[in-house]
Design goal:
This protein is mostly beta strands and 278 residues long. It has helices spanning 46-61, 159-162, 195-203, 206-209; strands at 20-22, 28-30, 67-75, 84-93, 97-106, 109-119, 163-169, 177-183, 218-222, 224-229, 238-246, 251-260, 263-276.
């Protein structure tokens, strides 16, 4: 089952109400809301990463480990807009920490591989005068941030329809910038997205909102994403404060601070492969 338009001129299905639909088989049907900017039949990285993060978070919760502190996604192949499957394994589980691995499969092939670390949460009094504390907030509050136009928006349904954004600083898609993200639709039909899902969907856009190359001349696709969180993200809105750095030989790095409306929640990095478009 695939809830996506064919891309070959045939009539499209009605607009999707979620990025994925859970199937009785345990797999997930991908909808047009997963489409990314690089190819009309490939997903944006944020949605499948968020889907696997959701599955890992559920496995960790079964061990009473309720904070996913790190998630690393290795994107091996483009993820097609098609039926996909998630496999999660517990590599080690202790009293306070567990390590997980996972893979995302499509069409009989592994398309992405993941590792994650989950912690047990426990209330703790922290001294108020520690260096770097209290933790910083986003460059500009949600209420002060204007609506962000989405560079990759088009008449074709995709990622830009799944999220809405507001610019907290800079000019989105033209260098270092910070953008607030909110999901317009659930990641999985019938489910309210949690904080980790919201972070993953937004964090994979760090290289986009901080782009310093012309999107029409260059491709700067990320081959991975690592998210480190010092606490759970809360609320609907996530701010990604990102910048892109380029090396001389076709490599690059996007790095970002991650905020919710309460302040800093973590950081993310992406390795970039820089190429001229054909």
């Amino acid at each position: 089952m695939v809830l996506a338009s064919s891309g070959d001129g045939r009539e499209s299905a009605p607009p999707a109400a979620s990025a994925y639909v859970a199937l009785a088989s345990g797999a997930y049907a991908s909808t047009d809301l997963t489409r990314g900017p690089w190819h009309p039949q490939h997903q944006h990285g944020g949605q499948p990463i968020a889907l696997v993060a959701r599955c890992i978070e559920r496995a960790a919760a079964g061990l009473e480990l309720t904070h996913v502190a790190r998630l690393t996604a290795n994107l091996l192949r483009p993820v097609p807009i098609a039926e996909i499957e998630v496999e999660v394994r517990t590599d080690y589980a202790g009293r306070n920490v567990a390590h997980f691995s996972a893979q995302l499969n499509a069409g009989g092939k592994e398309v992405a591989r993941f590792t994650a670390v989950a912690h047990r949460e426990a209330g703790l009094d922290i001294p108020a005068d520690l260096p770097g504390h209290p933790l910083p907030h986003a460059p500009r509050s949600l209420e002060q941030s204007p609506v962000a136009p989405f560079l990759f928006a088009s008449k074709t349904t995709g990622y830009h329809d799944l999220i809405e954004g507001r610019v907290a600083t800079g000019i989105a898609f033209r260098g270092p910038s910070a953008v607030w993200f909110r999901l317009r639709h659930p990641l999985v039909a019938g489910e309210a997205p949690g904080g980790l899902v919201r972070v993953a969907v937004a964090a994979d856009s760090g290289n986009g909102i901080s782009a310093i190359l012309d999107f029409h001349r260059y491709m700067f696709v990320n081959s991975d994403l690592t998210i480190n969180l010092l606490r759970k993200a809360r609320g609907e809105w996530i701010c990604i404060d990102a910048r892109t750095l380029l090396g001389p030989d076709g490599g690059g790095l996007s790095e970002a601070r991650i905020f919710d409306t309460g302040g800093l929640v973590g950081r993310s990095t992406q390795s970039l492969a820089i190429r001229l478009r054909d």
